[in-house]
Design goal:
The chain has 7 helices and 5 strands, in the order αβααβαβαββαα. The chain folds into 2 domains: about 60 residues, Orthogonal Bundle (Helix Hairpins), CATH 1.10.287.80; about 230 residues, Pyruvate Kinase, Chain: A, domain 1 (3-Layer(aba) Sandwich), CATH 3.40.1380. It is an alpha/beta fold.
């Protein structure tokens, strides 16, 4: 009977786990709806902001471009890694950390060997990983990824811009998960600084349409508007990254908890069959013992 008790205990424990994973799935689903709405609402503004910047860049002479658009000079790179604060979201954290390491060891291997690669972590999981390894941490931000807001994004950008202006690094790359659907996230590596002027699809489209584009008049000047617009673009870009990562995290957690709940139910069914078989064998054994005892009593009475 000890074996039956062990199976019953395992079934009870797995049922409790299934209730927890099911509850976490429902919580992630509720958070995902809000996060998805925020991402979708932010995308049109991001596109229009890029469009306006592209139009301005077309009209500003190259030698007058601000520091934000100048190419790197070898001072090093800052890699911003956006992860989650918690686990239980499948390969969400592992993928973004692995991609950040690949970026450092492959694309920036020379700078890494020269000690010119710095890492900023957003999310506890990325911080726990990189702080234990041979990486120079430029900054960390924990407890903000599940509640992204413009003020937090502004603080992060100010910290990055401070190092960029001081020449601590002259290139900033962001590694994060972009939300695509509930069951799929896109691993993204974007250049934050210097602001790309030749690889963005929106800018390329506008360049091809340059002859037919509307010739706007900017006051006080294109340069003056660009100087104000670029910091806004950087802050909103970071805010949008946080929104995308949060939505992707909730989608990954919802999928992972759904799979865990299904696996728990399948395991319960397997254990229930095992329990029924063991119980049937135990009952059969007891019946055989009773029958054997009764036969022995009959033989003793006949003797």
């Amino acid at each position: 009977m000890a074996g039956l008790r062990d199976i019953r205990r395992r079934i009870a424990a797995i049922r409790s786990t299934a209730k927890i994973t099911q509850a976490m799935k429902l919580v992630a689903a509720a958070k995902l709806r809000r996060a998805q709405e925020a991402v979708i609402a932010a995308r049109p503004y991001a596109v229009n902001l890029k469009t306006l910047m592209a139009h301005l860049l077309e009209r500003v002479e190259e030698d007058r471009l601000p520091i934000w658009l100048r190419q790197d000079t070898g001072n090093g790179v800052l890699v911003v890694v956006v992860s989650a604060d918690r686990g239980l979201c499948g390969a969400f954290n592992t993928n973004v950390i692995r991609e950040a390491e690949r970026l450092i060891t492959d694309k920036f291997s020379e700078w890494h060997e020269a000690g010119k690669v710095r890492v900023m972590t957003i999310g506890k999981r990325a911080y726990m990983y990189f702080v234990k390894r041979d990486y120079e941490l430029y900054g960390k931000h924990i407890g903000i990824v599940n509640n992204p807001n413009p003020a937090v994004a502004r603080d992060i950008v100010e910290e990055i811009v401070s190092g960029y202006r001081a020449g601590t690094f002259d290139r900033v790359e962001i590694v994060y998960n972009e939300f695509k659907s509930v069951i799929q996230q896109n691993l993204k590596v974007d250049t934050l600084l210097p602001i790309p002027t030749d690889v963005d699809p929106v800018i390329e489209i506008l360049k091809r349409k340059r002859k037919t584009a509307v010739n706007y008049i900017y006051e006080p000047s294109e340069q003056g508007v660009l100087d104000v617009l670029i910091p806004k673009h950087l802050r909103f870009r970071m805010y949008h990254v946080l929104l995308e990562s949060n939505a992707a995290e909730q989608g990954a957690r919802m999928t992972a908890m759904d799979a865990a709940t299904e696996n728990a139910h399948e395991l319960i069914e397997t254990l229930q069959l095992e329990y029924n078989s063991a119980r049937q064998a135990s009952i059969t054994k007891e019946l055989l013992e009773i029958v054997s005892g009764a036969e022995a009593l009959k033989e003793g009475a006949g003797a």
